[in-house]
Write a structure and sequence with these properties.
Elements: H1 22-31
């Protein structure tokens, strides 16, 4: 695997967040603009605010 390079999508406004070019700028300054996440769906469904989630490695 290799890091996932992010594009301008990281600065687009979301439902409750305004557009913020500083997000991509900060990622570039501190992480070479690599802020991606590789994931797989273990079981289809919705994740809601307050639900527990786990980071599983390996």
């Amino acid at each position: 695997m290799r890091p996932a390079l992010r594009c301008a999508m990281t600065i687009h406004p979301q439902d409750e967040l305004a557009a913020d070019p500083a997000i991509l700028r900060t990622a570039a300054q501190h992480h070479g603009a690599y802020v991606g996440l590789l994931a797989a769906v273990g079981k289809p469904g919705r994740i809601r605010i307050g639900d527990s989630v786990w980071l599983v490695t390996g």
